[in-house]
Amino acid sequence: MDAFTHLGSTVREALSERGFTRPTEPQRKAIPPLAEGRNALVLAPTGTGKTETAMLPVFDHLVRARDDPDDPPRSGISALYITPLRALNRDMMDRLEWWGDRLDLEIAVRHGDTTRYERSKQADDPPDVLITTPESLQAILTGSKMRTALASVAHVVVDEVHEIASAKRGAQLTVGLERLRELAGPSQRVGLSATVGSPGEVGRFLVGHGEPDPSVPNDRSFDVVEVDVGTRIDVTVHRPEITEVDARLAGRLATTEEIASHVRAIREIAAENRSTLVFVNTRQTAEALGSRFKALSSDGGEETGAEGEGTGTEGEKTGTEGEESESGDAIPSVDVEVHHGSLSSDVRVDVEDRFKAGEIDALICTSSMELGIDVGRVDHVVQYGSPREVARLLQRVGRAGHRSDLVSRATVIASDLDDTLEAMAIARRGEAGLVEPANVHHGSLDTAANQIVGLTMDFGELHARRAYRILTRAHPFRELDEDTFREVVRELDGNRVVWLDEEADSIERSGGTWQYFYANLSMIPDEATFEVHDLSSRTRIGTLDERFVLDFSGPGETFVQRGEMWRIVDVDEEDERVNVSPVEDPGGEVPAWVGSEIPVPRPVANEVGRLRGEVAARIAEDAPLSATARGLAERYPADPSTIEAAIEPIVDHAETAHPVPTDERIVVEGAGRSIVVNAAFGHRVNETLARLLAALVGQRTGSSVGMDVDPYRIELEVPRSVDPGTVIEILESTDPDHLEAYLELALKKADTLAFTLAHVAAKFGTLKRYREGKGRFGGDRLMAALEGTPVHEEALREVFHTDLAVPETAALLERIQDGTVALVAARDRTPIGTAGDSSGREFLVPENADASVIETIRERIADDCVLLCCLHCHDWTRRTMVRRVGEQPTCPECGSTRIAALNPWNDEAVKAVRADGKDDEQERLTERAYRSASLVQAHGKRAVIAMAARGVGPDNAARIISKLREDEDNFYRDLLEQERRYARTQSFWD
Description:
It is a single chain. By secondary structure, the chain is of the alpha/beta class. It has 6 domains: 2-227, Rossmann fold (3-Layer(aba) Sandwich), CATH 3.40.50.300; 232-431, P-loop containing nucleotide triphosphate hydrolases (Rossmann fold); 445-519, Arc Repressor Mutant, subunit A, CATH 1.10.10.10; 529-582, no CATH class; 660-829, no CATH class; 848-988, no CATH class. It contains 40 helices and 32 strands. The strands form 7 sheets. It has a 7-stranded parallel β-sheet with strand order 3-4-2-5-6-1-7, with helices on both faces. Strands 8-16-15-9-14-13 form a 6-stranded parallel β-sheet, sandwiched between helices. A hairpin with a 6-residue loop joins strand 30 (865-870) and strand 31 (877-881). The longest helix has 20 residues, at 682-701. InterPro entries: ATP-dep_Helicase, DEAD/DEAH_box_helicase_dom, DNA/RNA_helicase_DEAH_CS, Helicase_ATP-bd, Helicase_C-like, Lhr-like, Lhr-like_DEAD/DEAH_assoc, Lhr_WH_dom. This is DEAD/DEAH box helicase. GO terms for molecular function: ATP binding; catalytic activity, acting on DNA; DNA binding; helicase activity; hydrolase activity. Residues 258-446 form the Helicase C-terminal domain.
């Protein structure tokens, strides 16, 4: 209770009424310095009372100031509570409202959905505490009445600060806090965060730099208050054994026996506990896993009909029908729902409330449930598949055991070799407290541009040097040099967003300032989302990403959302709306949300490599596999049977006599046009290596190179003239000092840079200028127009920051070249090299699509257009639908069957075929046309159908056609698989 003695009597009385008998550990450690008004970063798991840790001292300060007869009362906002999500705003309001009523303090919420009436009320009669988001802070900093209200702010609490520290919206917030300081003077800053590996960096991110105010004790300094999470978690990595029950489940769920075993294992865990959170890494997997549970629920009972009961932590679930488990006991059925950010807010709130009330046994969720939304007591956490990062594991496991005296318990359901070893490494590192450092987003120039405009909104006009000082007090812009700052201002001036007076060295509002600023309150890229509406119930069920809609969604297509199957009725691109109807089919596309993949850090991938090497060494010593598994189980939180099943592929690999890839050995293998570089260095290093190899191989051969990356291997699709030796020679000869320059050249025409450039240009106000009076302005033209500007520099910097790891990869090249990391070639493909990153992939790409999906593909291709061109007489062309093409296309002019089937708008290919003298590009187009004509001549309409599919050229069409099949459906399944492969790797085909 010592911590609570630092609070005044009024707050202590409220504590007693609220049932706070003793402080939690973060409250015990943090309340004393916070009560003294010190800045602090509080690191602790969700559910340990972090909100009250920060707000009780704030409430105490407000109550004491209000009741102090010698201190004149303040009329404005005294405290800001900033959260990264609107959902957290609502949740915080629910949690803090009682304190406000009890202490006679007004608390209000402000975000994008706040009504005009509420905003006006807050401006005229400001609350004592305002709960808001980083973006809403940007808006209220510029309103005249709200600026007056904000001048009283003495306390700022930033919740889940780790979540935004690595993003541009976090950089925007830090400048916003410095703008607030200009208005209100120094204020106490408190950050609440999950455990991070670099608390000093996050603390400095929170409090900023600059000269401290001598009248304010501890200004610009901060305390770090950290609760050791590793000693409070109990994580088990488990790979379920496949049983006869799973074989029956697999048939009913239209999935593999392995996935069925995962579903069964999760049901068993949920049945043994009163409330379970099931975390997955992507929204796709959440929907797919949810659909499997929905399918079980809709069966109307299990096959065995056995009565069963499961005893939970604090109660029992009885009287349910259940499938028999491995032990012969019945598995009770469980009520499961899905929760993620693309579901509509009313659906999410309903699910949260039902879970909190105990009406739902388990909630399948993504990171949407990491950030402290109150869903009541959680007894157990299931992580489906490796959590990919230590920090993410700790954050998710911390949701369980919502009392300070409880250990948080979790089970990781793992699958293959990579997934299991990765989960074991992460669990061990989590218990040891080896958390990844926060990747603070430093020096983002579009954020700087955005905040320079914000400063002109604040002041109307200000000297450039003052703007520069305010900006560089924020930690992410500490090292921004003056020359770059001036280039940014000149770009804004050229875009008519602000006006730069060079003589007076002042920055002023322009005619476009207001419009730009309110259109760019957020640094989150503006990307269209399509609302999904169920026509049968006339309800909104969620959203789909624009890329998914444009690439995959047409009438008749099926997909999973909210754990249920839907068929698209129509797509309204103008209103950005997808109308759907529910279906019962078990197969179909899963929504492809952008940016959902969690990158595996290098240290985790390195440990997986070390584990492989350790197992390989034991195999070489003829040690029994069971003994090796038992030895690892003594150091890693996994049972021996899970480890033994996971490491069997290493045994298979060792039997091939090829070296096992480890953290100190890269194995390059190849077959046909596919080369795999087995490199256990994590997503970002492998992405960097892959782009380097793709660029240099492409430069040598003059051909495009496709690539696919996971944390343990790089797969390259290369010309047949390239072999593993070519890749090894590039890695051994590339100068690490020139790596960044090579990558800049490689990114010049990459889709990822063009996509980023468009968003950065919008944040500079540049894109509007280039589009004025010019209609659509393509990515290539935009790239050429902006090269050498701060806009292009920022787009390149962002790709390097987000996707690549240049210093680490340069260090790896040095280690390869000095022999520290071995580089060897394999004669053919190896078991580890062919394994791939398959965790959960069965959910995403069903092995056999159902009949309705096949029929949809068949009809879609039949309705597509194709351009037919006779390569004998060169006179005849025809643009027609595929369904109208004859079984053996023939030229009506000359009777030839040498007909090329081309993209319907590829008139350039026709011109190339007819040209007398040809340049290199025309030669390429002509060669491709002749390959197409040869296929059509040999296989007729089937070749036309194959080449009409997305991403299927003559080479892929020939490969697909050459397969022997029992039925035509398999032909369309192969086309579907190629379309999906093309969609995954499209950004690398430039």
